[in-house]
Amino acid sequence: MVTILDGGLATTLQAAGHDVEGHPLWSAHLLSTQPRAIVDAHAQFIEAGADVVITASYQASVQNLQQHLQLSVDEAISLMKDSVTLAREAAQASGREVRVAGSVGPYGACLGDGSEYTGNYLATMDRTALKEWHRPRVSALVAAGADLLAVETLPGPAEALAVLDLLREYPNTPAWVTFSCQDSRHTCDGSVFSEAAAAVCAARPDSLLAVGVNCTAPDAALQLLSGLDRRRVPVPLVVYPNSGELWVDGRFTGDRCAELATMGPRYRDAGATYIGGCCRVGPDQIRGLGDALRGTGDGRKT
Fold it and tell me: Three-state DSSP class for 273?
């Protein structure tokens, strides 16, 4: 059975009139300035059929929150915990089982220079440095009661393995690991995706829930999943592509690719258990995804 994930939180907030793309913290700054907007955005995805909502902590780090919101370390940690609390509020109000995934974005996302889509920093940061940088946010999300962690948009396996080292300290919190990919074969740092996924599984802590791809063009995401050797990647697969538009010079450009409703059954047939959307995928697309999966007799999780 397929578990339906939410879509682009920033996209939904932007559509509601909130400044997201123009702020260095993206959605995370609204945790402090307009927390009700975060709850409302989560609620829209839940109403559209999402079984999992992902917190607004993707670009939140202690350093970023201190710099851009003038917070203390303790206040920054508290704000990251709030991302779970707000998602949980929306989930509980729905009257059905909806899980909260704590977003653990890559180091590059918090640099604000797009380096999460190149992985350039991986050449200068070792595994220990990456692990310790991720620790405060992972600890905050787990302490706040996230049901699982979405370790997402990683540009390459080096950062994935560093976070997996850290996750061994939290064996009771399941996590998925997803890579952002530059094409139908390579992660954004140029690594072969199938090898990166296999490396995650080989190093897997007991808490590894799934591995896959996100923030990648829909067609490429399908090819990436289809190219996996399931003997080396024996865990469930997760996929939540973007719309196919490109982020260039601070804005999205280009054409949208195939609709998620069209791709969803194909992702499922390629072995995906968790399916949703990323940038520029809103609640309407998530609703269409659920309709498409039910229409193919999927027996979607409810």
Answer: strand
Alpha-carbon gap, residue 267 to 178, rounded angstroms: 15
Question: In whole angstroms, what is the distance from residue 231 CA to residue 135 CA?
Answer: 31
- At 213, is the secondary structure helix, strand, or coil? strand
d(CA 39, CA 197): 33
37-94: pLDDT as tens digits = 999 999 999 999 999 999 999 999 999 999 999 999 999 999 999 999 999 999 999 9
Cβ atoms of 209 and 176 within 8 Å: the answer is yes
Outline where DSSP puts E strands in 105-241. 148-154, 175-179, 208-214, 237-240
Is residue 121 within 8 Å of residue 74, measured between CB atoms?
A: no
Site of tokens 């592509």:
241
For the chain, counts of helices (H) and of strands (E): 11, 10
The Cα 4–Cα 292 span in angstroms is 12
How far, in Å, CA of 289 to CA of 260, rounded?
6
pTM over 0.90: yes
Contact 18, 244 (CB under 8 A): no
- Alpha-carbon torsion (38, 39, 44, 45), positive or negative: positive
Q: Can you tell me the distance from the alpha carbon of 33 to that of 69, in angstroms, rounded to the nearest whole number? A: 10
